[in-house]
User: Fold these one by one.
Assistant:
Number 1:
Amino acid sequence: MIDVLVIGGGNAALCAALTAREAGASVLLLESAPFEWRGGNSMHTRNLRCMHDAPQDVLTEAYPEEEFWQDLLKVTAGKTDEAMARLVIRESSRCRDWMRRHGVHFQPSLSGTLHLSRTNAFFMGGGKALVNAYYRSAQTLGVRVRYGCTVDRLELAGSRFVAAHAGGERIEARACVVASGGFESNRDWLREAWGRNERGEWPADRFLIRGTRFNQGVLLKDLLAQGADRIGDPTQAHMVAIDARAPLYDGGITTRVDCVSLGIMVNRDGLRFYDEGEDFWPKRYAIWGRLVALQPEQVGHSIIDAKAVGRFMPPVFKGAQADTLQDLAFQLGLPAATLAETVRNYNAACRVGRFDHAVLDDCHTEGLSPPKTHWARPIDTPPFYGYTLRPGVTFTYLGVKVDAQAAVQFGQRPSANLFAAGEVMAGNVLGQGYTAGVGMSIGTAFGRIAGRSAAAAISPTHRSGESLASAA
Ligand SMILES: Cc1cc2nc3c(=O)[nH]c(=O)nc-3n(C[C@H](O)[C@H](O)[C@H](O)COP(=O)(O)OP(=O)(O)OC[C@H]3O[C@@H](n4cnc5c(N)ncnc54)[C@H](O)[C@@H]3O)c2cc1C
């Protein structure tokens, strides 16, 4: 019998598998996706948020524990668990040497894009290179991997893991780590969670999924049905406003449109609906998907003028371009008169000081509702540009409750041999909101904790006895 069964094939699963193997356990990893699509949402990532007290290779200045914690507290509006959050934060300061040992390389952030050089370590080659490195290392260490293997359900004895069932096959193991992502790819579940709004719309029908199609939430649903403690709200998710032309799945980061804070955002009716300059883009980009989801027809339009060009990462699709706002409104299907009035009112309210997109500058509006609190400059310099945006779901926060050892809880008691890591338990740290790079911090921290705990859950007399040396 295998010692540790890891279910999932993304960052959290790989961190768990590698750690359990390093602790001497035999490990089998089951990945739902075929080989060429392996890696889940993790393959789309670029960086990891890291605590550090002094400049490091690719990280500038310092990002102390307290500041990281305050950032999390702010973005989640207090919907977080301090002990679990601090555990992630501290792990983020010591995981990178381990990551390097498994083949991950880092690079500094590109300057001037997302204000991240101090807080986030970027993966050389992105998340795809990271998961490829981990798979290579796993292979070297003797972790067995099966692709195209979707686990349908878990067989439990009370809270104890007994076996996983996949396509009619029963796979026993002494311990199990579930790292099978959220339920963001399951459109029926999203529809059910979001329900029907007061306008009679089913908002989730217009959502796009930024990442993998394989995170269907099968095991999350199964675990909750079998009595695992639940955490989080099913409508809470990391949701970005992305280009409406993005594919339904796997558009990745290229479909993101990062100019919202440089202009204004209007809805279908040509009206603004939120402060575009509330905070730095990495702390705010993940609220815009939800804000757009609450608008009529779940659509938003980011409008900028020529002054913004060159100040944000160019999106993969070209925006609408026009020399007049009237023409722009026509191209975007917006009511021209309302858009003109919205821009006129906004321009009149702008109090331009010293524009600086790298700090919370003093350019703001006065007497406007909603206000724009930073980077407010009139939209008056043609050509004008517009991007039509839809809610893009990155990952959902509903999950299973775990303890500090990553053990899944049933009736507030931890399972002895069932652990969870990554998106499937991210709700333990993220009740709402997001700050860039923390998804990978959570998956890496809890993946390693879960791997360690799973290996420790097996008494030495029951080990399969597969040594690291013989496997390598
Ligand atoms: C476009 C995009 C960009 C992102 N950028 C960043 C970033 O730069 N930094 C950051 O911190 N976070 C980022 N995130 C979020 C990040 O991807 C997640 O927080 C993190 O990858 C979660 O890791 P995970 O291992 O839990 O999930 P995943 O990487 O999604 O892995 C889940 C795995 O489980 C498998 N699976 C699902 N169901 C089953 C089943 N029943 N049986 C077997 N296998 C199953 C899937 O195939 C998949 O391999 C991004 C996400 C997206 C979509």
Number 2:
Amino acid sequence: MAFPLYFFGFPATVKNVIDRLFILLESPQIIGNCGTTCHPIRFDRHPKTVLISSCGFPEIEHFDIVRRHFKKICDEAGWPLAGEILISAAGAVDVPGLFDKKLNFIKEAGSAFMQSDIGRDIQEEISKPVISDRDYREMVTAALKGGITGRIKSTVIGTKAIIKSKME
Ligand SMILES: Cc1cc2nc3c(=O)[nH]c(=O)nc-3n(C[C@H](O)[C@H](O)[C@H](O)COP(=O)(O)O)c2cc1C
């Protein structure tokens, strides 16, 4: 499932799709493996899933709630969760080259997903920051402010991040 993070969770359109998956469950209420009430699973199909999301704030912690929510849905539906691709600071995606390393790891994650699960090491590489939180906040704020000063400031911060990433 792939979506941009909205208000710390699923966008309404995505949630609408999730709600329709209720058909995958039977209506009786039973005690599940975790000791709380749940519905039995209707079909004997257990497709593996991957959580893919981007967010506009720089910290990865903004995904905490949706990660828990998605895992709960997977547990209830009997879907094995094969990994997470979480990209914070999505406002920096237009800075040339800054996401190149991340994109390569995302391709690796795609291959890993086809074979089995996405390893924790690949997930961590994907989630690594490409710019400091402070620079990112200032860059996005300047870009949103616009005008010649805003554009110059955001370009300067972006260029600084590109140079830093090339030196790593
Ligand atoms: C209605 C709305 C709510 C948002 N809520 C959050 C949020 O809670 N946390 C966050 O980091 N970014 C939030 N964002 C930013 C989006 O997650 C970000 O723009 C998106 O991941 C970028 O992907 P896109 O280019 O496909 O829109 C929000 C954006 C919108 C429009």
Number 3:
Amino acid sequence: MNIVEATRVVVDVLPDALIVSSLGTATSAARLATDDGPHFYLGAAMGSALAAALGLAEAVPERQVVALLGDGDFLMGASTLWSVSAWRPANLVVVVLADGAYAITGGQPVAPSLRLAEVADALDGLAGVTADSAGSLRAALTSIDRPGIVEARISERVWPGPSPFVDPAEVVRGVRSNIAAGP
Ligand SMILES: Cc1ncc(C[n+]2csc(CCOP(=O)(O)OP(=O)(O)O)c2C)c(N)n1
């Protein structure tokens, strides 16, 4: 599975979800898979995407929210997991695109092993599961309790687009219009 395939599965299974994507290739993949749809693309602020997604999930409880994160971004903001465990938004699913590398800055290794599903399961009120194929990711997104974390294991490196510049004002306008339009 590569990150474009994984992101397309997310969009296919949860077509009405608001996506919050972290900087790097997660944002490129989300823009590609949604035809630059009105989602919350973080073009910078490494480590903050899960916190942004948690805030959005709380602010818009009637919508499904997907945090689509690079593993580097996730680790930089990992303490937010404890906030997710505390607040337990029933509309938040976290998909970590675990390619084991900081792809956009040259492929430096992230960590020897993430074991995110086990970490999530160890925390109160959080579910964790791993997926290593499009089929298992589809099943995970369909069945995981919320809030839940899916460690999507990425085995094939692809380049979904250039390092994305996203205009924050435009992003906010798009997300507001998405929320106003409803699911
Ligand atoms: C605080 C901070 N440190 C470092 C960077 C540089 N940087 C930008 S993207 C990135 C890699 C992100 O890795 P990951 O989330 O795994 O996404 P990928 O590049 O693999 O898509 C790094 C290190 C940054 N933007 N901010």
